Amino acid sequence: MMLEPSIVSALVQTETLSTWDDTKFCVIETGMTRGEFDAGHIPGSVFWPISELMTPHFELQTDPARFAALLSRSGIGPDTVVVCSFGGEPFMAGWASWLYWVLTGFGHARAVVLDGGTEKWRAEGRAVRTEEAARTATVYPTPAGFGSAERAMLPRVLEAVEGISEAQLVDARSHAEYRGENFYDKPPRDGERAGRIPGARHLPNMALLGADDVYRPLGELRELVAELGLSMERPAITYCAVGIRSSMVWFALRHLLRFPEVRNYDGSWNEWSRAVSAETELQIRGEL
């Protein structure tokens, strides 16, 4: 007998998912190609192209009506448990936590991240399908908007840099990006500069995963953040290039280690490197 999905943690294991009644939850996969999805995915999965969630300039699609329509087409209602997964290599894990961040930002609380994603599911010899699940469309209520509690915007990041707030900045990019040696898998464009936000601590998102490509045990995660000097007593702001890799750090701090206040700066380096100059800072503060 398959079990009713029960959310006891924001992170669900493949073994637990295999016991759930697959008519009572929906797996969403994004961050992969349609071909990768069609080659084999977890039964009950639906595919969300990146274009449904991001603009061509890697900015979040925040139109509530658009998001409600996407959920409705996918057969998801307010009470549906949504399992956020990813396929392919471990470096794609950020897509699952980012999808979770998007869902909860729009107010869909019944969501979980699948630890290890679809690749772990396959590696364990569990069943996969090549056809997308046929789901009955719903009428998902239009959210009020994308909530601000888990999101940082540029002015909040500037306050942290200037010492106006006590927020701790955490850079989730690679060592080379953090040191300003290169850009993430692409040449710079439109005035993008290399470097990091002043004062940011460095916690590469891949450092959160162990040798088995799942999140490291809580004890190891606590040691990792303690070595960086991150304090639960102060707010934290995570960032990367476009907010995807940093959502993994946001997820680990907020939902695994239970930091009281963590925000993901999805504008990230894509916005900061172009927008922030001495003149811009003055304009934002209303001094120019």
Give me some keywords for this one.
11 helices; 31% helix; alpha/beta; four-stranded parallel beta sheet; five-stranded parallel beta sheet; Oxidized Rhodanese, domain 1; disordered C terminus; 288 residues; 2 domains
Report what the structure shows:
The protein has 288 residues and is an alpha/beta fold. The protein folds into 2 domains: 11-123, Oxidized Rhodanese, domain 1, CATH 3.40.250; 154-284, Oxidized Rhodanese, domain 1 (3-Layer(aba) Sandwich). 31% of the residues lie in helices and 11% in strands. It is built from 11 helices and 9 strands. The chain has helices at 14-17, 34-38, 64-73, 94-105, 117-123, 154-161, 175-178, 218-228, 245-256, 268-275, 278-284; strands at residues 11-12, 25-29, 45-47, 81-85, 111-114, 168-171, 201-202, 236-239, 262-264. The strands form 2 sheets. It has a 5-stranded parallel β-sheet. Strands 7-6-8-9 form a 4-stranded parallel β-sheet, with helices on both faces. Helix 7 (175-178) links the parallel strand 6 and strand 7. Helix 4 (94-105) packs across helix 9 (245-256). The radius of gyration is 19 Å and the shape is globular. The chain starts with 10 loop residues before the first strand and ends with a helix.
